[in-house]
Amino acid sequence: MSVTAPLAWLGHLVLSILAETGRVSRFTGATLAALVRPPFYAREFLHALLQIGWLSLPVVGMTALFTGGALALQIYAGGARFSAESVVPSIVAIGMARELGPVLGGLMVAARVASSIAAEIGTMKVTEQVDALVTLSTDPMKYLTVPRVLAATLSMPVLVAVGDSIGIFGGYLVGVNRLDFNGATYIKNTVDFLQFWDVGSGLVKGAVFGFLVALMGCYHGMNSGRGAQGVGRATKSAVVAASVLILAANYLLTEAFFSA
User: How far apart are CA 72 and CA 81, in angstroms?
Assistant: First the structure.
């Protein structure tokens, strides 16, 4: 094997990553431009709002409930080492509102929604329904991408807010029934320590995560390969890309919001 083979492989990898980044950036720019151009397909938007927002409530709610309960147990066990068990209500509330609510909600929606969008649009491309839209003078970006991206961006903060509430309630249930906290004291500590920006930052994160989830689903669906294998690869790539971007965006937003 040639000595330069590893360097050639590394160079090819870097160029591939840069090319993919460029394609995603162009797709993002086209999506943002299409958001402010008529026409607007209200029926598609409402359908996407139902599929992305309303039908994601059960999985987000269950995830938040068990996460809040487990978080209360972990914080109590850790705080007991320093005789600081009383911090459980405040840390559960702050942790759910700032981090766990938006991130876990985003990841669960990514698993459910990004895969669904990519599979749906990829199947439409394979069966030439996307080409049929162009033949009918309908812009696929306006008809397929914009309603889904807008619906996910608007509904995700609502899902995060609901998930935060259920997660804090899960911590309350464990704290009162398992850890012997007084219910009124638990609620008072939660309210006293939870600030507006703790909740607001999570809602902003939710909007960004929703945008990324729908964008990745639409992008990989639009660029799906032919056949069942192509749709499968597009679905897998959409979930992986959305999940990685959520974690990366979470760090960047946390750094911007809470850095010293």
Answer: 15
Q: What are the Cα distances from residue 19, in Å, to 16, 83, 213?
A: 5, 54, 21
Distance CA 230, CA 189 (A): 52
Q: Write out the two tokens for 231.
A: 């749709």
CB atoms within 10 A of CB 192: 11
Which residues, including other chains, have CB under 8 Å from residue 188's CB and lie 6 or more apart? none
Count the residues in the chain. 260
**Which residue's structure tokens are 């598609």?**
44
CA distance 207 to 159: 10
The mean pLDDT values, 10 residues at a time, for the chain of 260 residues are 74 85 89 87 91 91 93 86 81 91 93 91 87 84 92 94 93 89 87 87 94 94 83 90 94 86
Give pTM, 2 decimals: 0.90
Nearest to residue 35, comparing CAs of 214, 254, 182?
214
CB-count exposure of residue 140 (10 Å: 0-12, 13-18, 19+): buried
Q: Of 74, 70, 99, which is closest to residue 85 (Cα–Cα)?
A: 74
Which residues are CB-contacts of 141 (< 8 A; sequence separation ≥ 6)? Answer: 30, 31, 34
Which among 126, 145, 151, 142 is positioned nearest to 48, based on CA atoms?
151
Question: How far is the C-alpha of 213 from the C-alpha of 103, rounded, in Å?
Answer: 12
Residues contacting residue 72 through CB under 8 Å, at least 6 positions apart: 88, 92, 170, 171, 174, 175, 178, 179
